[in-house]
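pasting for ref
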Amino acid sequence: MNSSFEPPEPNKNAFTCPHCGAFAAMQWTNLFTQRRDWKPFSIATCHRCEKDSLWINEEGYGGQFMVFPNSSIAPLPNEDLPPECMKDYLEARSIVESSPRGAAALLRLCVQKVAIHLGGAGKNINDDIAHLVQNGLPLRVQQALDVVRVVGNSAVHPGEMNIDDQPKTALALFGLVNLIVDNQISQPKHVASLFADLPDGAKNAIDRRDNKT
């Protein structure tokens, strides 16, 4: 997971390059012409890989947006995201620019499956989160789960929150999903791997220490 992911945005001094994936400074160049039918273009050049992204200013279509490369601006999933969640995450990532609301709904489904993976019963996501909290879920992770849950629910209930008018909100949910997986799956997995590599004598001493009667 790239913890320093910054989505590409027009005229931003630095963001995560859609080519090399590095967080890097960008050099912006505006293209001009005398032709009246020419749409204003800008080029952002990555200082790391020196490759360009092409941006068009299309009035009536949300202003300036990236047209090349044709890649998602959302972060890639944490490699430890459970397999049953991966399809939903990747589908959300593929549509977030065209349908932030659809992406938010898919990510809500994704965290519901994550909650089941972590020990929830799967009947109700709200009850699953409450169960995880009772079993020691950190406050930060609980809040991340609830943000994705509430925003995802709002995406499919008209009038509560217009996600299509707030694409940054939908985009932020990807980072929260990765945060949840990192805290609850990746970090414990990493610590367990390091502990398993300790000498047997050290592990036996730890076991005796913790099982004194």
